TrEMBL record:
Residue span, ChsH2 rubredoxin-like zinc ribbon domain: 30-55
Domain of life: Bacteria
Record-given protein name: OB-fold domain-containing protein
ChsH2 C-terminal OB-fold domain mapped to chain residues: 57-121
One Pfam family from the record: zf-ChsH2
Amino acid sequence: MDLNVPTTSASFSDHLATYSHFLAKGLIAMQQCKQCKTFRFPPANICASCSSDQYDWHALSGRGIIWSYCVFHKDYFPNESRKIPYVVVLIQLEEGPRVFSNMTDVDVNSLQIGLPVRAIFEDQPNAETLLRFRLAGGDT
Ligand SMILES: [Zn+2]
């Protein structure tokens, strides 16, 4: 789905602001190259595949699989309140791009590479919305 976002003269900060804007609306949106259809993530002005500067923003399904993960049993960032252990995942999205994120509401002993996940959007006290994932459990 083309999200009809103006794409002229955008800086990296503009791209991140657009990405964050859509997260706050409960959408994963990524740039897609108009020439070769490769998704760009993180956002960029030039396609890493064909060097085109033409792109559109597209909404992704939010579905994917666990490509890889790591369980942290120590909090390396004690200023951020989080439950220990926590899980950092690399998610292979259905449309192809891979994103790093965290799993929520998950038994770390049940994790496996290849399990289906779906995106959730966590509103933070600072008004930022973070992309997280939850096991899909048959609802995909
Ligand atoms: Zn391209």
